[in-house]
Amino acid sequence: MPKLTPEERQDRLRFDYRVIMQMHMKQLQQINPVMQVFAFRNPDDLANRRNPILSQDQGHLATHYLVEYYIRTLIGPDEYSDKTAVKFDLQANGNYPFTVPGIFVDESETPHPWTPHFRSGLPVCIDHDVWDEGHGMILLGQLVVHVAKLLNFDEIPRTADYGGYTPEAADYWRKKLGGQPITPRLDYPVLPEDIINQIVDPPKGLFRSAALAPPSPEQFAQSFRSMFAPRAQPQAAEPRDPRADMQLPEAVSESTPVRTASPLFSPKPASPNAPPAVAPLQESKADSQPLFKPRGRN
Fold it and tell me: What CATH number has the domain spanning 6-231?
């Protein structure tokens, strides 16, 4: 198995951080965000929600991520939860990005999902052949979206005897949900298009050891745009609330109400669907243009 040099691994970690945090900032602009992401240096900081990484200059130190998904998922027969906290340990199997990260539900924070891919005490099953066939090209941002689809039962076609970790949940999905996602047409987060375009011809070491032949631009384009595309058959279209596509304005007048940002780890809101507000990321000293636009404050 190939292996990145320490410098190559830092470049890859820094790039993962940049991509996932740009996705996170885009989610903050949504009325109904699907996820929020927090980055940490080690599992202790994650467990205690302390010392989050807020700057691109320190992105290479981010090896542990907490993703809070605001997606309706099953936690038992006919029983649902609207929030699932999932931990991603990039170092778990020793050779990131060639070995798959460790992915576990934070059961101290949220109920454990009842799906074929989740089981208490075991890592989330993402179909290891998908990761292995990526040969180090799959980004953390893609993996995070893939887990979102697993929570939504947005499954690839399965055989009639497919059971995964929880055969009862697989049977429920086939018979009660008709093999369809829990929330059809859910607007999943997407990788930033400008970043995808930048890495069709990636710099040396970003995804794989310099000793290996680089993948073709076609391979990269295919990987980034369709590796984890939704694969369940859509149901008949239903009327869509136009408010679902609204975004918070980037510029506001003095008369426009502005939501004030609160500390990074604020007390949990009363509503189970309402995500906590977070502080803006610091700009990278290495970039001439700020990647993340600071949010307004009162």
Answer: 3.10.110.10
> pLDDT (tens digit, 9 = 90+) per residue, 109-124?
999 999 999 999 999 9
List alpha helices for 38-79, DSSP H: 43-48
- Residue among 29, 21, 33, 22 nearest 269 (CA): 33
Q: What percent of the chain has pLDDT over 90?
A: 53
Strand partners, 80: 74
Give the list of residues 6+ apart from residue 275 with CB closer than 8 angstroms, or none. Answer: 33, 36, 68, 70, 269
Instruction: Identify whether the C-beta of residue 261 lies closer than 8 Å to the C-beta of residue 277.
Output: yes
Cα separation, 233 vs 156, whole angstroms: 9
Do β-strands 84-89 and 102-105 pair in parallel, antiparallel, or remain unpaired? antiparallel
pLDDT in tens, 154-187: 987 777 888 889 999 999 999 999 999 999 999 9
Token pair of 78, please? 């006919």
- Give the CA distances from residue 231 to residues 74, 101, 138, 156, in Å, rounded to whole numbers and listed in that order: 19, 23, 18, 5
* pTM reported for the whole predicted model: 0.70
Radius of gyration of the chain from its Cα atoms, rounded to whole angstroms: 19
Alpha-carbon span 292 to 294, nearest angstrom: 6
CA distances from 245 to 69, 70, 145, 183, 277 (A): 19, 17, 19, 16, 20
Domain ranges of the chain: 6-231
For residues 21 and 19, what is the distance between their CA atoms, to the nearest angstrom?
6
Q: Tokens 């101290």 appear where?
A: 108
CB half-sphere exposure, 265, CA atoms < 13 A? 14
Strand order in the sheet with 64-69: 35-40, 64-69, 84-89, 102-105
Higher pLDDT, 210 or 155: 155
